[in-house]
Each structure stands twice: as C-alpha cells, then as structure tokens.
Design a protein that fits this description.
Elements (H helix, E strand, L loop, with lengths): L2 H47 L3 H14 L4 H13 L3 H11 L7 H13 L3 H9 L8 H13 L3 H13 L5 H14 L2 H14 L4 H13 L12 H17 L3 H14 L5 H12 L1
Helix pairs in contact: 2-3, 3-4, 4-5, 5-6, 5-7, 6-7, 7-8, 7-9, 8-9, 9-10, 9-11, 10-11, 11-12, 12-13, 13-14
Length: 282
C-alpha cells in the first residue's frame, strides 16, 4: 500500500535535483560571463595604454564589428586611432560616438580634439560651442584657447589659457602653447615670461626652452637664459639663437653663435656646420 506514494516522492526528488542542476549551470555560466566582462575590461585598458597603437586599433575595430552598439568599444577605437595619429579616421569615429545613446560632454570635447588634429577648425569650434558652459574641464578650455588662437581672437584665447592653467597640476604644456601664441602676435616680452613659467614647471620641456630663445632673439637679446640645460641642449639653443640673429639682420653675431654651438656640442653638429658654411659662402 505504500508503493504508490514512493514513486511520486522519487519523481519530486528527481525534479528537484534537475532544477538544482539547471540553476547550477546558470550560476556557472553567469559566473563565466562576469569573469569575461572583467577580463575584457582589463584588456581594453591595456589596449588603451600600453599596447601598440595600431594593434589597439585592430583590436577595437574587431570588437566594434561584432558589437557595434557598445559605446565603450567605439570610444576605445576612437582613442586608439588618435594614439596612432590616424586623426581623420579618429574624427569620423568620434562623430559616431557623440550620436550614440550614453554619449557625454567629454565625448564631444574629444570629438573637437580629433577635429583640430585633422585640421577641421570650423567643425571643432561648432562642436565646442555645443558643449554647455557648465561643463568645465582642462581639456575643454585648452581646446577653446587653441580655436580662439586660430581665429586671432586674442582676448578670448588669453582668457581660456588662463582658465586651463588653473585646472591642471601640470600646466607646462599649456603655458608653452600660450607663450607661442604671444610669440606669433609679436608680444615678445609676454611670450618670454610664459616660456620661463613653463620651464619652471617642467625643466625638461625643451620645446619651451627653444621658444624662449626665439622670444629673446626677436628682441635682439642673444644671451642664453639661465635655465637648466645639458651640453647638447646648450649647443642646440645656441644654434637657434644664431638663426634668430641672422633673421634679425645681425649676421656677424649669428656666425659667432654658430661657431660657439659647434664647439659646445659634444658630437659633430652637422646642422650648425651647414648653417655656418652657408653664411660664409653667401
């Protein structure tokens, strides 16, 4: 009389075990999916930082082909194209990113950056104009300053450069750009001051050192500034100063500076030798 009760009990136990097995499989599969997401996130970060830029482009191009609606992968492709200096392609991908759901104001700023890199200043300005003024970031104001420079809007450029300097702990590059802006306008004392500030913030920034020499040379000041420099840098700066002197019409001073540059350089300074030879034979 008890057997009819045993069979249903067995069936119930079997169904329960089957249910547990199915839940177990789902749990394992979900765990693997979670692990894959973590691994992919780490791989994406590696590709964006330490990987070869063109390898990163290939990786993100494959990823976006299989999942084109993922904005994080589209961003990765755009950033990798910028790193690879494929700026026209980068601008096209950033243009796609800013039109996707989940796009941010930072994406628009990065789009403007890519447009500037590809030489499309007008679209870069329109893109920056579309970013709300409440979005304040170092990169946004640095780009605003560059666009204002390109349009010879000097007061706007100065204002944006000043804001950008205040929004970063490493302002040397911005100070150098600001100084070059002053140099192109003919404000040589202002440029000299900004280049000096840039070097104080980053004594290794040779571009600022070279620009500082140009600013001094434009004022017929042919003495090297008191700044950190090694022997090779000193020779290179003397060469820059010599060319500046020649440009100002001070040819004899230029020749003397070229001879000093040749003597100072720890190796054969072919470029300075050619410049001196050209002056002496002309």
């Amino acid at each position: 009389m008890r057997h009819p009760l045993v069979i249903p009990a067995c069936l119930i136990a079997g169904l329960a075990l089957a249910g547990c097995a199915e839940k177990g499989d789902e749990t394992v599969e979900r765990a693997f999916r979670d692990v894959n997401v973590i691994d992919e996130t780490n791989l994406n970060e590696v590709m964006l930082t330490v990987a070869d830029p063109n390898e990163a482009v290939d990786y993100f191009a494959r990823s976006t082909k299989s999942t084109p609606d993922r904005i994080d992968l589209q961003r990765g492709l755009a950033q990798s194209l910028v790193r690879a200096k494929r700026n026209t392609e980068a601008a096209a991908v950033w243009g796609k990113v800013v039109g996707m759901p989940g796009a941010t104001e930072d994406d628009s700023v990065d789009y403007a950056d890519a447009l500037i890199r590809s030489g499309d200043w007008d679209r870069a300005k329109k893109t920056l104009d579309s970013v709300p003024p409440t979005h304040e970031s170092f990169k946004r104001y640095r780009l605003e300053a560059m666009v204002a420079d390109a349009n010879h809007e000097w007061k706007r450029a100065d204002s944006f450069y000043e804001i950008a300097v205040g929004l970063t702990t490493t302002p040397a590059g911005v100070l150098n750009n600001w100084g070059f802006s002053k140099l192109t306008r003919g404000d040589y004392p202002g440029a000299e001051r900004l280049f000096g500030d840039a070097i104080r913030r980053d004594p290794t920034l040779f571009t600022a050192k070279n620009n500082l020499v140009l600013a001094r040379g434009a004022q017929h000041n042919y003495s090297l500034p008191v700044i950190p420099m090694d022997q090779t840098e000193r020779a290179q700066l003397l060469h820059t100063m010599a060319l500046s002197a020649v440009k100002q019409g001070d040819v004899n001073t230029g020749k003397a500076l070229l001879r000093e540059a040749i003597d100072t350089h720890p190796q054969h300074f072919e470029e300075a030798v050619r410049s001196l030879r050209a002056l002496e034979t002309s």
